[in-house]
Amino acid sequence: MTIDDDLTRDHLVGCLTFAHPATADHLEALRTRLAAAAQAAGTLDVAYRTVDTPVGPLLLAATEQGLVRVAYAREDHDAVLQALSVRISPRILRSSVRLEETTRELEEYFDGRRHSFDVALDWRLSAGFRREVLHHLPEITYGATASYAAVAALTGSPKAVRAVGTACATNPLPVVVPCHRVVRADGALGGYLGGVDAKRTLLALEAAA
Amino acid sequence: MPKLPFDAVVEAHGATVLRVCRAVLGPVDADDAWSETFLAALKAYPALPADANVQAWLVTIAHRKAVDVVRATARRATPTSELPDTAPAPAADDPDPDLADCVARLAPKQRQVVAYHYLAGLPYADVATLVGGSAAAARRAGADGIAALRTSYPGLNATTGAPR
């Protein structure tokens, strides 16, 4: 476009925006409607939303199969969505349509009223031994902890202590799959993908409930 | 560069596409056209080349959906495949319908060219592909449309068209 065109465009857009404000609320309503239509059409491959929790905003993402990703803010939610776009599908929309039950269960968990999660999980972001490790984590009782070595023993590979650490550090479903209950043998907390403070918060919450 | 999540596409282009739909169809049918546009775009998005001009792609879809909306409306009313001479009346809560009314009163082709070139930034060659005819004809329709708007809506002269 020429400079004249640019000026005309800017002014036209300005006047039309004033005449018909594409208000944030209106666009938000259209986006909600779009997500519902996409869900009905089977083209919503990944739905996501964020929820505020005592460990900061958590990003929740779900496929048709179930909850596929929980991410802490320090993982960078935009980067997580970009990775989902590459790994699963770019057909991603912000929508709570598939995440109402997960949201409710997380609220109950952070209120101390829920000790385990019942939502369907999509494990596709974890494979091999790491996935096997994660499958065993719900066996650690709510409010208890287990050492990396104890979890390695649970998997039947007692020497794979380091691999258990890696599995926990790359858990695509933190909080829901309780890698925060895995601590060091000497009683130290060990690392956590949500940060040590988040791990401490979750363990204190479970100890108090 | 990896393909952005579609939600980022809606975030970046949703407002522009809505403006284009409103200019072409008026506010009542614009919402339907917007929804149909992004629903179709979502479906086709995985196959879109990573280096594609996303806004031009969306406007192309919006044009087709606007034509569909007009045809559907026409089937319910009088048979015609042309855009209506005037868009539906603006919403009752419209704070200042003047310019939107003026756009609605443009000839259909002028309205489309103004929307696609001035609001969405498509080059005239691309606009001509959408609305038919040559790029030069599209350019003339755009210039005529803007001239008509300057006459009917003097506010548009405030910062444009003056000697610099």
UniProtKB/TrEMBL annotation, chain A:
<dbReference type="InterPro" id="IPR036631">
    <property type="entry name" value="MGMT_N_sf"/>
</dbReference>
<keyword id="KW-0614">Plasmid</keyword>
<dbReference type="InterPro" id="IPR036388">
    <property type="entry name" value="WH-like_DNA-bd_sf"/>
</dbReference>
<comment type="function">
    <text>Involved in the cellular defense against the biological effects of O6-methylguanine (O6-MeG) and O4-methylthymine (O4-MeT) in DNA. Repairs the methylated nucleobase in DNA by stoichiometrically transferring the methyl group to a cysteine residue in the enzyme. This is a suicide reaction: the enzyme is irreversibly inactivated.</text>
</comment>
<dbReference type="InterPro" id="IPR023546">
    <property type="entry name" value="MGMT"/>
</dbReference>
<dbReference type="Pfam" id="PF02870">
    <property type="entry name" value="Methyltransf_1N"/>
</dbReference>
<feature type="domain" description="Methylguanine DNA methyltransferase ribonuclease-like">
    <location>
        <begin position="47"/>
        <end position="122"/>
    </location>
</feature>
<keyword id="KW-0489">Methyltransferase</keyword>
<comment type="similarity">
    <text>Belongs to the MGMT family.</text>
</comment>
<keyword id="KW-0234">DNA repair</keyword>
<feature type="domain" description="Methylated-DNA-[protein]-cysteine S-methyltransferase DNA binding">
    <location>
        <begin position="129"/>
        <end position="207"/>
    </location>
</feature>
<dbReference type="Pfam" id="PF01035">
    <property type="entry name" value="DNA_binding_1"/>
</dbReference>
<dbReference type="InterPro" id="IPR001497">
    <property type="entry name" value="MethylDNA_cys_MeTrfase_AS"/>
</dbReference>
<dbReference type="InterPro" id="IPR014048">
    <property type="entry name" value="MethylDNA_cys_MeTrfase_DNA-bd"/>
</dbReference>
<protein>
    <recommendedName>
        <fullName>Methylated-DNA--protein-cysteine methyltransferase</fullName>
        <ecNumber>2.1.1.63</ecNumber>
    </recommendedName>
</protein>
<dbReference type="InterPro" id="IPR008332">
    <property type="entry name" value="MethylG_MeTrfase_N"/>
</dbReference>
<keyword id="KW-0808">Transferase</keyword>
<keyword id="KW-0227">DNA damage</keyword>
<dbReference type="InterPro" id="IPR036217">
    <property type="entry name" value="MethylDNA_cys_MeTrfase_DNAb"/>
</dbReference>
<keyword id="KW-0963">Cytoplasm</keyword>
<feature type="active site" description="Nucleophile; methyl group acceptor">
    <location>
        <position position="179"/>
    </location>
</feature>
From TrEMBL, chain B:
<dbReference type="InterPro" id="IPR039425">
    <property type="entry name" value="RNA_pol_sigma-70-like"/>
</dbReference>
<dbReference type="Pfam" id="PF08281">
    <property type="entry name" value="Sigma70_r4_2"/>
</dbReference>
<keyword id="KW-0614">Plasmid</keyword>
<feature type="region of interest" description="Disordered">
    <location>
        <begin position="76"/>
        <end position="97"/>
    </location>
</feature>
<keyword id="KW-0804">Transcription</keyword>
<dbReference type="InterPro" id="IPR013325">
    <property type="entry name" value="RNA_pol_sigma_r2"/>
</dbReference>
<feature type="compositionally biased region" description="Low complexity">
    <location>
        <begin position="76"/>
        <end position="92"/>
    </location>
</feature>
<keyword id="KW-0238">DNA-binding</keyword>
<feature type="domain" description="RNA polymerase sigma-70 region 2">
    <location>
        <begin position="10"/>
        <end position="75"/>
    </location>
</feature>
<protein>
    <submittedName>
        <fullName>RNA polymerase sigma factor</fullName>
    </submittedName>
</protein>
<keyword id="KW-0731">Sigma factor</keyword>
<keyword id="KW-0805">Transcription regulation</keyword>
<comment type="similarity">
    <text>Belongs to the sigma-70 factor family. ECF subfamily.</text>
</comment>
<dbReference type="InterPro" id="IPR013249">
    <property type="entry name" value="RNA_pol_sigma70_r4_t2"/>
</dbReference>
<feature type="domain" description="RNA polymerase sigma factor 70 region 4 type 2">
    <location>
        <begin position="99"/>
        <end position="141"/>
    </location>
</feature>
<dbReference type="InterPro" id="IPR014284">
    <property type="entry name" value="RNA_pol_sigma-70_dom"/>
</dbReference>
<dbReference type="InterPro" id="IPR036388">
    <property type="entry name" value="WH-like_DNA-bd_sf"/>
</dbReference>
<dbReference type="InterPro" id="IPR013324">
    <property type="entry name" value="RNA_pol_sigma_r3/r4-like"/>
</dbReference>
<dbReference type="InterPro" id="IPR007627">
    <property type="entry name" value="RNA_pol_sigma70_r2"/>
</dbReference>
<dbReference type="Pfam" id="PF04542">
    <property type="entry name" value="Sigma70_r2"/>
</dbReference>
